[in-house]
Amino acid sequence: MSSDDARHFQVRVPGSGEIVAAPLAVRQEGDVLVQTLFTGISRGTESLVFRGEVPASQREAMRAPFQEGDFPGPVKYGYSNVGEVLEGPDNLVGRTVFCLYPHQDRYVVPATAVTPLPDHLPPRRAVLAANMETAVNGVWDARPGPGDRIVVFGAGVVGSLAAWLCDRIPGTSVLLVDPDAT
Questions:
Q1: Contact criterion met (CB below 8 Å) for 104 and 80
Q2: pLDDT mean across residues, the chain
Q3: With DSSP H G I counted as helix, E B as strand and the rest as coil, what are the percentages for the chain, rounded to 5?
Q4: Full 3-state SS string of 33-94
Q5: Is 132 left (phi over 0), alpha (psi -120 to 50) or beta?
Q6: Which of 145, 140, 130 is nearest to 100 (CA)?
Q7: pTM of the entire structure?
Q8: 144-154 pLDDT per residue, tens
Q9: pLDDT of the residue at 91
Q10: Average pLDDT over residues 48-73
Q11: Number of Cα atoms under 13 Å in the Cβ half of residue 39
Q12: Of 8, 147, 157, 175, which residue is 20 to 30 A from 16 by alpha carbon distance?
């Protein structure tokens, strides 16, 4: 692997993944080079991708930003990446950022694709940003109100975050249930 290569995870065929070295994209004007600190793996979505179970009718809707390849594989997938900007505009160099990017150690994207993190936010927690967005949308769609009794079914990351959000509504009683006892 040369210094111009990056390593990423890809699903080669359903149920089989590998770490692959590939040339790093050349940074253009307005791009940033990011060194990954953390990536988050979605237990639900990425398990479907890994097993090759993304329904044909949902393949376009489930494409992730910067995804390479197609379902069922080979495909480079993922959408929760926190890293440090190594090169780019002066206001971003050295900043910790969130990006909807697959599991890769270094990558180049337009500067507009990254969101700088607040200084007080731990990077390992910021990797949950994509999951929190999903949880917020679910809570908005459910329209819980003060005093409601709420059951959230599924104690994965998104379910746990949704329960946490609902618990902050005054007077609610929240129960988080998971069918998997492990």
A1: no
A2: 94
A3: 25, 35, 45
A4: EEEEEEECCCCCHHHHHHHCCCCHHHCCCCCCCCCEECCCCCEECCCCEEEEEEECCCCCCC
A5: alpha
A6: 130
A7: 0.83
A8: 999 999 999 99
A9: 97
A10: 95
A11: 20
A12: 157
**Which residues does residue 81 pair with via DSSP β-bridges, in sequence order?**
39, 99
In sequence order, which residues have a C-beta less than 8 Å from that of residue 156 and are 6 or more positions away? 43, 44, 178
CA dihedral over 103, 43, 153, 174, signed as positive or negative: negative
| pLDDT tens column, 156-174 | 889 999 999 999 999 999 9
Cα separation of 11 and 42, whole Å? 14
Contact (CB, 8 A) for 84 and 96: yes
Determine the 3-state secondary structure of 95 from DSSP.
Answer: coil
Q: DSSP label at 24? A: P
Q: What does the radius of gyration of the chain's CA atoms come to, in whole angstroms?
A: 18
Distance CA 103, CA 72 (A): 17
